[in-house]
Queue: 4 jobs
Job 1
Amino acid sequence: MQFMPTLTEAKPEAALSNDEILRYSRHLIMPEVGMEGQQKLKAAKVLCIGAGGLGSPLALYLTAAGVGMLGIVDFDVVDYTNLQRQIIHTTADVGRKKLDSAADKLKAINPFLNLRTFDTKLTSANALELFREFDIVADGTDNFPTRYLVNDACVLTGKPNIYGSIFRFEGQASVFATEEGPCYRCLYPEPPPPGLVPSCAEGGVLGILPGLVGVIQATETIKLILGQGDSLVGRLLLVDALSMKFRELKLRKNPDCPACGTHPTITKLIDYEEFCGIRGVEAPVAAGGDVPAISVEELKKKLDAKADIFILDVREPHEYQICNLNGYLIPLGDLPKRVSELDSSREIIAHCKMGGRSAKAVAFLKQAGFAKVSNLTGGITAWAERVDPKMPKY
Amino acid sequence: MPQIQIPSPLRQYSGKQASIDIPAKTVGEALTGLVSQHPDLKRHLYTEEGKLRAFVNVYVNDEDMRYLQKEATVLKDGDTISIVPSIAGGC
């Protein structure tokens, strides 16, 4: 089966100057691109959601390839933990808006680019209007609410959704929401309940992985514009960098799909935070949920006063190696079978990186009959920020 | 024997194994066998009512079991079952 939706017709205003002809020479000498294809690229308008891990290679390659108009939606600021994979940003950009940082690099690569930056969070209120200005949307977001928002807005506006997603060593890519092909909801009708699937901030991600997957997204975007080759419409590409295996699965358009089926129930954008169970984005647990909590300052006072405290560290062993509070290490997943190692008569303070996992540990221990147990609010990260600035943050 | 591929987000519940051979005649039997060997996986694959979760897709080779005979899909020797949960990371 061959799926290659046609998109842009080359417009007369997309004629190439001599400088552009020289720049795109290696495209122009291939019959699959040629003058016609390059003019299609110049006439194309691509909206990139996010200027992060996937957005970096996407924006860089689309710009270099000669896409005429590139929009980027992002409201974030560059931080040090981004630099391991978000290759559009440099060390000197830390603290700058990702949009400003990206704009500098993209303009330097290709001054012919018409760059449109949107310094905003993509929401149900602005998505449709934004998408209507573009031909193709490339999804480089990092959370479930925005994934479903991008998909539904693409279906409603009839724009192809170039999808890529990553976790640790694995990635997925496809092209959704074309007229004849399936959408993201055909594949996954509902998001996972909050907390069940870890985010990259929790689970980590190999730095090259957004490169691999983002370049696949850029490739699909360019093929769609050119109308060449077989697109990923109707196929889910799975990338496993650890075994270096690429597999593909068949995707079908679900006639009962609430977004793109024969009788769609999603006829306007909804509240995606609510749809994904409010906490679609993993955030630090502010007050440790509903469990007893202690602040890092209070813990410091207790330790200074030599109070009898048992610090339980529920992170993973490799996190313990980065930094620790000299606590007793039982990873959250092992807690049920190792609970007998703990003394319920002592005061136990549980911590993790940010306070989320240890809140679960405290809730579990409470249920198991531990009375004197509390959660360190903000985890070891809060300790590093407010008590011991020499401690590394990760 | 059919082989079940475990995606990395779920490997922490499968004793870190990336693939597990399970003797089974159908997809349903294979999944039941899997969660009985690794009970921690159950809560991640099934709802409390015992239904497969909506964000977990099960493929037999490259075909979604929803478009085969679902859990009743008959397995042949050498078939690969893939569990493909949704992931959202990108930044």
Job 2
Amino acid sequence: MNLSDTGKSRVNGYLFVLERSLKTFLPGDVARDAVREIESHMCERIAAMDGTPTEHDALEKILAELGPPLRVAQAYAAERIIDEAVTTGRLIPIARAIWQVAATTLMGIARRHGSVQRLCCRDRIPGCRCNEADLSQQRRSASREWHSAVLRSAVPHAARRNRVRRLLDHPGIDRLWNRRAGRDPSRGSKISDPLARARETASHCSALGDRDE
Amino acid sequence: MSCENWQEQLRRGSLDLAILLTVSAGPRYGLAIIQHLETFTDLIVTQGTIYPILGRLTREGLLASQWVEGEAPHPRKYYRLTDRGRTRLQQMKDEWRAFTDKISRLMAAAERARHESQ
């Protein structure tokens, strides 16, 4: 099947969006290679689409099966960044991976908002008669559930969550954090709260969330 | 966890093995890998997400890739298994068989227990 100008524009638009998305986190040559491969896939599919009644239907089917460009780009991001950080242990890839996880965690928070709206029943039920110990237990439990939900939203693939946990345990994280906070790790300074909380979140998931799934 | 989520995790977890098996017979390009997987499995939901996995397997040294021009009206990127990939594939196949054996034994034991209790 030979594409009309409209069809070519549709294909070019898809590739343009994909390339722009990929270039935000991939080196230029890697992004171009990825786009070239997707373009090759589309050309192959278009050439084989002789039986479809209209060009529009054929093209939409091909693009739907390929997936939206942002989703394809997101798949590249997820595969690339976290793996790079885990395998190299270098600070910049680790920082990028943390940013990636943090950014998707924000989406996770937005998506999961409402799943744990209230921390304890006193916040939900007027006149609740729970004692302080019960309320404290409820808050801890809700907090664990919330953290677990956030990490599961951010990193839906269980194997990749394990990689994130390994990443958080990587010595490079300590170096990065101590450098960022201007601390000397040789003096035995403690890891600050945010990083400890991230590790706690990962261990909550490991101990509770994944088993619950 | 819903059944759909569980299926999704199972599907994703086995995609690496499925891709390595697909290219173990000889070099294939992206669309040929996808078509092969679609013929024998329902592992692929979104075709575009296979390419990032191919890229990762290449970076890990399990696959080697090469652009080939002139074979078709457009260039094709072929993937072939490396020696390291062949070793990894064998490990994954062994692990997969051992895993399915364990689950089968568990299922058989559960069935037996159910019959005995009836």
Job 3
Amino acid sequence: MSVASILDRPSIKRNPVGRALTSTWGARITFYVMFLVFWQLLAMNVARVPAPLETFEFIWTELTWGDHPGVRDGEWVEHLSVTFVRFSIGLALGVLAGVIVGIAVGSSRFMRSLLSDVLLVFLALPAIIWAFLTVMWFGLGWKAPVFTVMLSAAPFVAVNISHGVRAVSPELHRMSDAFGVPRNRRFRSLLMPAIAGYLFTGLRFAFIIGWNAVLLAEWFGAANGVGWRSRLWYDGARYEGFVGWVIIFITIIFLVDGLILTPLQNRAFRWRKSGAAGIELVEMDHAGFEEGRAVRGA
Amino acid sequence: MATLQIENLTKTFPSHSKGEEPVRAIQGISFEMSGQVFVSVVGPSGCGKSTLLNIVSGVDTPSSGTVAVTQDGKPAVLGYVFQDPRLLPWRTVMQNMLYVSDLPEDEGRENAKRYLEMVGLEGAEGMWPGQLSGGMQQRVGIARAFSVHPDLLLMDEPFSHLDAITARSLREELQTLWEATKKTVLFVTHDVAEAVQLSNRIITLAHGGTVFDDTAIDLPFPRRASDPEFAAQQAEILGRFETMEAERAEATG
């Protein structure tokens, strides 16, 4: 084999078209195309399934403040922002509660015995139960969605954090003991970074579950917001509106995950980019993710 | 002046299963060291070397006997170098140094820089531990231990995980660092040659955790393994250990 042909070989991979087709993006695009075809076929053969084009037309009208036939103006900014505020407050409270409970359960055998069954019950309760209960307790308004989000999200954070706390290297604890490192510095520089991987896994679940929860709670217990807006179209038997809103809130999950959570995670794990010390912890994080998924399934 | 006094120290670990004898890691060790000395504790694995160091550092407690580390009558500041570097992987080299520092931020930085320079790591302050080789990571560990201005510096086989060539150059650096700072050092190793190269005094432990031998090494620094006196000293310590083992095997045999 000549030197030139050896040098040529990598150029196949450098070819932009070849790379695009074999990349993860290529696979994703294939999926979306197939999904759209499947949806179109479904809509053509089943009543009460809106066609893709019809649905995208609806989304366009909604997002451009257009008038829907029969229903005046798309107030999507108002509904989205109301939902977002509820969701953010609920998620913040849920994460805070989850971190506190998770650290307590992870670091104390007593707390673990005391709370592990309670945590399992909370994990097993679907968001819809919280939506019904909170509407029962607080009536219509902002409280039901906020507390539904908090109560649905907290246990996922707590369970992941407690696993993280228990996985902190005992060697690093002994090192800190030997040098007499004060508690608050140990919390900031040893405990928190060590559990960051678990925290992000927990956050992702909390985010997705919390978002579902806020929509459910609004569906049953609010007079505005994304959930309420979806129900409006559903109750009016306008399925393209219902499906349109489903697509809008799925898109939001993708956007927040890609624009906020992923960059945050990359920043927290800058130290992993190079060298051997990181590999072990990436695997640990992966284990945390698997655990989180197992928990999600429970 | 830092003083370490160990009197009749014993350490027994509970047995793992019922009916088994408890494990006696250390049985009645006594010795004293003070001032600008580099003392090595050598012995075969399982003779209680690391347990001894853990008790001196306060990470572990003695079953009986006393351990006192004092600096002019007051409790002493300790520094510790472990077998592995034990750096926080998510903190830079500088942040790792500051993690153990009690000084105000600016002073802590100056101080850390000085010790990093002493181990040849100037310019590495902003790097992550994962970007450094094993030897460089252990250098940070050594700089960290010196940077807290310890009255007594404890070192637990700090070079045993490194390749022979890296270990050799780190030994030389440690020796220079010790001559510059004249700290009181208690150094644990299973490597007699390493002990002979670095120490003023070598305490040998036998299996079962008893002091078997206590020898002063008066060779001038820097010491070279090729020096006949070095080899003689090493052979003498190993020879005494072999004789003791042989006699004991005969007695129990």
Job 4
Amino acid sequence: MADSKPLIVVIEDEAPIRRFLRASLPLHGYRVLEAATAAEGIRHLAEQRPDLVILDLGLPDMEGLDVVRQIREWSEVPIVVLSARERESDKITALDAGADDYLTKPFGIGELLARLRVALRHGARRAAPEAATYEAGNWSVDLAARRVFVADEEVHLTPTEYRLLTVLIRHAGKVVTHRQLLRELWGDEHEDAQHTLRVHISQLRRKLEPDPTRPQHLMTEPGVGYRLREDEPGK
Amino acid sequence: MTEPSFAATRRIGENWLGADSPSRRSEHSSWRAYAWAIVTVIACTLIDHLILRLTPESNLIMVYLLGNVAVALRGNRWAALLAAILSVGAYDFFFVHPYLTFAVADTQYLFTFFVMGLVGTVISTLTARLVAELSATRQRERRALALNALSHSLLTADAPAEMLEEAARLIGHDLGLTVGAWLNGEQEGPIVAVPPPSSLTRSEVEILRAVLKEGMAAGPGTTNLPGSGYLFLPVRSAQRIHGAIGIPIPEGTQLLLPEVRSALETVANQLAIAMAQAQARAEADEAKRKAESEQLRSALLSSVSHDLRTPLTGIVGSAGTLVEGAEALDPHIRRELAQSIVEEAERLSRLVKNLLQATRLEAGSVQLMRTCFPLEEALSPALARLQPMLEGHPVEVDLAPDLPFVDGDPVLIEQVFGNLLENAAKYTSAGTPIRIEASMAGELLWVSVCDRGPGLPSGEEERVFEKFHRHPVPGGRSGAGLGLSICRGIIEAHGGTIKAFNRTGGGACFRFSLAIAPAHGKMPHPPHEVT
């Protein structure tokens, strides 16, 4: 099974969306299993052990958030949630509950494929040991020696900035919510901490990005969190 | 008429709107007036005694007549009459032979007494009447002034309840009582506008209901249920009964003075007119609002139907062509059709998103997820998102490095940036720069997005923010005219302002204000950390 095509379970009640995923995903090397309800999707999940789940948050039979929680009780499978624009807050709670990434409807297939690649890679990495260095664009982070280089120049970070960067690197390519970052950095989530987090992100951008107002890697996802954008080799 | 009730009657309505009655007032001060009459006559007698040797006897009578006028000027005709009679008596007693008796030696003097008494009486009566009329005129004037003050205060109130409150307050103030007032709630009955001093008994509530239904006054002093503890006056105009005023009448007190009643009724009438006008105004406003929303709806419909139909036509046509002739089509054409479907669908999606957003902003159902964030957190994602559109435009960003955090919803502020940038890209020719600046002015952060395009047509600076207002671009894509109205909706929801103006040297500028984060607006250095 290891070298066969990755299996994706699509839990989505809207038939047109299922249809286009069914048509396009196999073209890009994925196998697709469809479910129109949460119950059916969870059954597929238990029986087939897929590599990734695409989950619509607006299902008829169950709250999207509850589906995420239920899956996370027993499975680490990467989950990419689909949310309608009116339900912005749903996607944040879903991410905080353990979803790996999100897409807002309507989304392009290119966007979807990028998210799937990142999520699958993180899913695979969960077992594998961490790499010793991280490279993106002209950044190079030596995780063993705790040194950061931009365009071969060493940049000095404060301990907090460095920890923040490593958390983002650990989730590279994926969105990380404010709450996740706070939890991983300080273990608390109060509003002051969020303010401090924003200050640190700003500092980090100033040190690592040539133009902090138009960052190339350390991206803001408004209202959600941050995403360390990676170079997309396959794109 | 027992003494306590008499006093209470005077308390209710005394001085009210100038309604104190002259007869009551003279009764009130009668003993003083009679005393004054006696004192005056004594004084006249003393004066006469002093001037007796210096003047002809006939002049003594003149002094008494003068005294009579002085008494009459106090306004009490009975006291004046008393003074006239006393004068005749005193003259006879002290100055007519034989002295110190009322006997008269010369019968000629009887005629003198008669004329003296008559003249004194006539003068007294005329003077007293004059004084009474003068005071009545003054009262009318005072009442007019008081009513004028009332109508003034009614003018400043615009809700019927406020008007009732104002009138009740005024009446209560002048009567020295707390006066209750109710709005006519039709089916649901009386609605308390001003709570009465004590809660109504069940029968009083029934009376109040009847007053609101029938529009007749009820309670003490009226023919309807005079036993009630309250005098209820309806506030009725030609159209309807707007409400009622309830004046508590303490037990055992006399009926309100007729003058007070009539003044109260005048107030009630004036109040009714004001309330009727207010209602008419409210109805006109409502009608206008309805018409406007109707107009907006039809503008929305026509705009939406056009903007929806155009991309839909493209999608249906292209997709249909693909379905029908999939095999026969040249791969190049097939790809082009598919591409157009994607583009048109994206256009539709943007339109629907904007429509939803505009509607939600308008309905006030957008909830701000307020937080403190650096401006870049809203600006950078917008710049990244619009990268393809901004391809031909150099974007200059000038944010001072020590700008404080702003207080707002980053998702919505990102949309403002997005819409303004999209606008700039849409209406200016390729190669022209777009400049984004932010600076502090007092407690506000002012952000501007400026371009070097054709600028705004003069007079359009305000209209560009109107919904569905669009400026035709020659040969260009024109939007649904929602972007700027959304910007305004978002900024105003944040308590800020947004304006458009032409910049010197050509081009349009959009500038908006944002509140800075209150507590820790400054960008602090992370504590106890060194690099």
